[in-house]
Design brief:
With 707 residues, the protein is α/β, with parallel strands linked by helices. The protein has 3 domains: 123 residues, Chitobiase, domain 2; 335 residues, Glycosidases (TIM Barrel, Alpha-Beta Barrel), CATH 3.20.20.80; 143 residues, Alpha-glucuronidase, C-terminal domain (Alpha-d-glucuronidase, C-terminal Domain), CATH 3.90.1330.10. It is 36% helix and 10% strand. It has 20 helices and 16 strands. An 8-stranded parallel β-barrel has the order 7-8-9-10-11-12-13-14. Strands 2-1-3-5-4-6 form a 6-stranded mixed β-sheet. Strands 15-16 form a two-stranded antiparallel sheet. Strand 10, helix 8 and strand 11 form a beta-alpha-beta unit. Helix 13 packs across helix 14. It is globular and about 80 Å long. The N terminus is likely disordered. Bound molecules: 4-O-methyl-alpha-D-glucopyranuronic acid. The site of 4-O-methyl-alpha-D-glucopyranuronic acid has 10 residues, from loops. 4-O-methyl-alpha-D-glucopyranuronic acid binds next to loops.
């Protein structure tokens, strides 16, 4: 019944604000909000006590207790103000239809039942009820009205996955939040509490699958012992509606069982994978399927046997098909012996394979054609393979965007790509419509984010990096959400709904990625990061074995100008886009200025829209990026009264690092480009603090995340 006092088991623990609770803090609300929450949750009525429903009801009790101080009881009967969870099976005469909600969607409605005003959360499944529960809690936490609710929500994208680049030895490739959270060594016997907390956080934002291991995979993850470990995790995640998937190494049949070949058309190879799939499904009946990085950056693959990516994917697809499994085949490929523009190679390899993939294969494409740069134009494969389901791969971990310490909110980056118009079927053919299947009528749909999660107490390496995980999940569930509204609800839940805090926080978040673009890679520059670890600037690097590993390959700066000519007079990468897009990109004048040097090599005197020369404009962007970080420092300092001491201090310290490093980026980049352009700095722009050799001499052999 309402008003039951807080049981010791459910009491929020008195712990430091170390970020462990993410956006699920359920801190005590102010009096009006607390009263509203109590009044709308006088009791909880749920249709059973299965594991998923138990998670939902315990989450409600814990949250409501935390926010209002009272724990609503579980009740079998309706009462005024109850929260009612129901499916058509549990409550045949539901006052709301669940048609169209699928197996994960939900409806929330304020309604009357038996003459009592209640809040109904309805869905077709327990997982849908859990999703509806999290939505209601989002409203309660962020201070939204709980009256007159009438919400319907169902995801358009089927596979909403995290990709962990976690290695079996506990390290994380491109991980900046500590060691892997998978304790492979002590699994399957020891399933620490963090696994359920991980599943809970993911479920709360609608993520429904996780690829446990690095795409640079070890064959060992397919041995019986590692399958048992993956199965143990699957058991923890299942009630949260989360499936597990594995990355596989192409040569696993050779490495594990001594087969002479990994040729996908060899019957023994196919039989090996079929037997392996059967073995996995015996241990994990709802196993999701395989993710494959093949013939990319030294990984083996079907091309080693003169077979195509489709040959490889289809062979694996046949192995998992009897179990309803899928194969996610990555299109992140570029070859050491291919002299063509790296940005063109994935399209060149995959476009001819359109229509050749089995129906349980989905091709996983990075948001841009190079590699998760601070800004990339959308990948030309989106819209170019109408007969093939394509899924998006975003990078949540910030390999190229300041790693753990820079505050660079990725919501705008995700949104920009999802909203980009491919023109594949005329205006309005957005990337979102490609990946949600609506453009070409595909049923198999997906989106993946390379996780930023590790053993750090705050999970993601910083409080603000949590927002990137959050934004990924929310956009995966509903690509029509705005980065701005997501930042707002994240800030409300992570800190407090007080507008005096939320408005400035959202403002600084929303401009922060653009600021990083400005101090790292303005005007469409890309991949000027230092070698290997990708931490900090290295635009001068020109001595690596493969041309496309060198930053000079990407910016092509010389005494006359800068930029990569990808028009017809250059690599003609623009020709890979649909004609209306290609036409715009063919001319510097019609190319969006923030992608200018991605597509064009231009003289230093080229006039930007601002009236600046390209050289002066470049410097002004570097200056603007640093200035933004200074402004974020000022804003954050003003928020001290509204933030707990721990999280305030961490963010303050990280902004100090970011400021120092933004300046380093600016100064090192200017020192280098000036050594090439020989031009004076525009009036008002300070000279770099050191000479170029000083920046070149900086080395970071122990920077994290680099295998
Ligand atoms: C997992 C980039 C990263 C690599 C990563 C690769 C990929 O090259 O630097 O660490 O490898 O992308 O996406 O496969």
């Amino acid at each position: 019944m309402a008003g039951t006092s807080l049981s010791p088991v459910m009491a929020p623990t008195a712990q430091a604000e170390d970020g462990y609770d993410l956006w699920l803090r359920y801190a005590q609300a102010d009096a009006p909000r607390s009263a509203a929450i109590s009044a709308h949750a006088t009791a909880i009525v749920a249709p059973g006590t299965g594991p998923t429903l138990t998670i939902a009801t315990q989450e409600l009790q814990r949250a409501i207790a935390g926010m209002s101080g009272t724990t609503p009881a579980l009740s079998a009967t309706f009462q005024q103000g109850a929260l009612l969870l129901a499916t058509p099976a549990s409550t045949p005469a539901l006052p709301v239809t669940t048609d169209g909600l699928g197996s994960e969607g939900y409806a929330i409605r304020s309604t009357m039942i038996d003459g009592k005003a209640v809040t109904l959360i309805a869905a077709n499944s327990d997982v849908g009820l859990l999703q509806g529960t999290y939505n209601w809690l989002r409203l309660a936490q962020s201070g939204e009205s709980l009256d007159n609710l009438d919400i319907r929500s169902a995801p358009k994208i089927g596979l909403r996955l995290l990709n962990h680049w976690d290695n079996l030895n506990g390290t994380v490739e491109r991980g900046y939040a500590g060691q892997s959270i998978w304790d492979w060594w002590r699994l399957p016997d020891w399933k620490g509490p963090r696994y359920a907390d991980y599943a809970r956080a993911n479920a709360s934002i609608g993520i429904n699958g996780t690829v446990l291991n690095n795409v640079n995979a070890k064959a060992d993850s397919l041995t019986a012992s590692y399958i048992a470990k993956a199965a143990a995790l699957a058991d923890v995640f299942r009630p949260y509606g989360i499936k597990v998937y594995l990355s596989v190494k192409w040569t696993a049949p050779m490495e594990l069982d001594g087969l002479k070949t990994a040729d996908p058309l060899d019957p023994q190879v196919a039989a090996w994978w079929k037997a392996k799939a059967d073995e996995i499904y015996k241990a994990i009946p709802d196993f999701g399927g395989f993710l494959v990085k093949a013939n990319s950056e030294g990984q083996p693959g079907p091309q080693d046997y003169n077979r195509t990516h489709a040959d490889g994917a289809n062979m694996l697809a046949a192995a998992v098909k009897p179990h309803n499994g899928i194969v996610m085949w990555r299109a992140f490929v570029y070859a050491h012996d291919n002299p063509d523009d790296r940005a063109k190679q994935a399209y060149t390899d995959f476009k001819p394979l359109d229509g050749k993939f089995a129906d349980n294969v989905i091709v996983q494409v990075k948001n841009g054609a190079i590699d998760f740069q601070p800004r990339e134009p959308f990948h030309p494969l989106f819209g170019a393979m109408p007969k093939t389901p394509l899924m998006m791969e975003f990078q949540i971990t910030k390999e190229y965007l300041g790693q753990s310490t820079h505050l660079t909110y990725l919501g705008p980056l995700f949104e920009e790509t999802l909203d980009a118009d491919t023109y594949a079927r005329g205006k309005g053919s957005t990337v979102s419509k490609v990946i949600d299947g609506s453009l070409e009528g595909h049923k198999l749909t997906g989106i993946a984010g390379v996780a930023n999660i590790g053993m750090d107490r705050d999970w993601s390496g910083s409080i603000f990096n949590q927002a990137d995980w959050y934004a990924f999940g929310r956009l995966a569930w509903d690509t029509s959400l705005s980065a701005d509204s997501i930042a707002k609800e994240w800030a409300e839940m992570t800190f407090s709904p007080d507008p005096k805090l939320v408005q400035p926080v959202v403002k600084m978040m929303m401009g922060s990625r653009e600021a990083a673009v400005d101090y790292m890679t303005p005007l469409g520059l890309a991949h000027v990061m230092d070698t290997g670890h990708h931490y900090g600037p290295g635009p001068w690097v020109s001595d690596l074995a493969r041309p496309e590993w060198n930053p000079v390959y990407y910016h092509k700066a010389d005494a006359n100008g800068i930029g990569f000519d990808r028009t017809k007079s250059g690599s003609d990468a623009v020709g890979q886009y649909a004609p209306p897009v290609a036409k715009l990109l063919a001319s510097a004048k019609t190319t969006p200025e923030n992608e200018l040097l991605w597509f064009h090599h231009l003289p230093w005197d080229y006039r930007l829209k601002s009236g600046d020369t390209l050289w002066d404009g470049l410097i002004h962007h570097y200056d603007g990026g640093v200035r933004y970080v200074t402004d974020m420092q000022t804003t954050w300092a003003s928020l001290k009264p509204y933030v707990d001491a721990e999280r305030f201090a961490e963010t303050e310290a990280f902004l100090t690092i970011q400021h120092r490093e933004a300046l380093w980026w600016r100064d090192a980049s200017i020192a280098y480009f000036q050594s090439v352009s020989k031009r004076p700095l525009p009036a008002g722009s300070a000279a770099p603090a050191h000479d170029l050799d000083w920046y070149k001499a900086l080395k970071f052999p122990y920077a994290p995340g680099h295998n």
